[in-house]
Design goal:
Length: 252
């Protein structure tokens, strides 16, 4: 039976690097690459012969095409990367309810549902990597939905990972700081933004894969994310929220 990997958001910055790295793994015959953009998906297929495109929008919280494909092919899933994610910098009271629901669905419901759907097809040694963020370490005003969704994903990963230990399946919550991808705007309101500790996606992905291979439940790449994790443990949450608010308020 073919060993397969599933990567959501495979067309984006971090997801495309996961696809690149996994394509070089000997025990993976196919990568089911989930994405919305047909052109970017076919570019991935051209570049990596093992990529199978799965065109899907996760904003409804589920991925029926993938569900059907799993049922039909009953593959041996070795790796699931729940990477697709979205964030909107906005005051919560300016966000339409549909956008609130979309963020919940893409960042929380879809990865949780995918884990549940994929687990019956996983055996000992299989791995799940859920891409959370340093935003999960504290609440972020004006990025409230994003930081709340990322703490959901981190806590879900760690709790389920503990449950799955006896099955020999690893779940790793990946918590990067700023990563140089299309998600980060270069400027806001005409002002260029400097991202402290900005990392290349390759470094984040390589560390995540190393940490998951070692059975770690968290992967915190780079000095900034490590420092921030420590800082959020020793600093009152209200103070961090005030500092964050002072930084972002004039960027809304
Ligand atoms: N960049 C950072 O600083 C940073 C830091 C910490 C964590 N993260 C997390 O890393 C993950 C990857 O983000 P990235 O930085 O690589 O950003 P990105 O380049 O914007 O990629 C995001 C990916 O998610 C997909 N996606 C978004 N909404 C979707 C939807 N409704 N249905 C299906 N796919 C959808 C995008 O697909 P389309 O191409 O179709 O839009 C894209 O492939 C996200 O979960 C993000 O929260 C990023």
């Amino acid at each position: 039976m073919a060993g397969i990997a599933i990567v959501t958001g495979a067309t984006g910055g971090i997801g495309s690097v996961f696809t690149d790295r996994i394509s070089a793994m000997k025990d993976i015959d196919e990568i089911w690459a989930v994405g919305r953009n047909e052109e970017k998906l076919s570019a991935l297929c051209d570049k990596y012969p093992g990529v199978v495109p799965v065109r899907a929008d996760l904003s409804g919280g589920s991925c029926e095409i993938l569900t059907e494909k799993l049922k039909a092919e009953k593959p041996d899933v070795r790796i699931l990367v729940n990477n697709a994610g979205m964030g909107v910098l906005s005051a919560f009271d300016k966000m339409p309810a549909e956008q609130v629901i979309r963020i919940c669905n893409v960042n929380c419901t879809a990865p949780a549902a995918l884990m549940a759907e994929v687990l019956p097809y996983m055996t000992r040694g299989a791995r799940i990597l859920n891409i959370s963020s340093v935003s999960s370490f504290q609440p972020n005003p004006y990025l409230a939905m994003y930081s709340a969704s990322k703490v959901f994903l981190r806590n879900l990963s760690r709790a389920v990972g503990m449950e799955l230990k006896s099955r020999g399946i690893t779940v790793t919550a990946v918590c990067p700081g700023w990563v140089d991808t299309g998600m980060l705007p270069e400027e806001v309101n005409g002002r260029r933004i400097r991202y402290v500790g900005l990392m290349k996606p390759g470094k984040v992905v390589d560390k995540a894969l190393r940490d998951s291979a070692k059975g770690r439940d968290m992967s915190v790449p780079g000095w900034f994310a490590k420092y921030f994790r420590f800082y959020s443990k020793v600093t009152p949450t209200k103070l961090i929220m005030m500092q964050w608010t002072a930084i972002v308020r004039n960027r809304i």
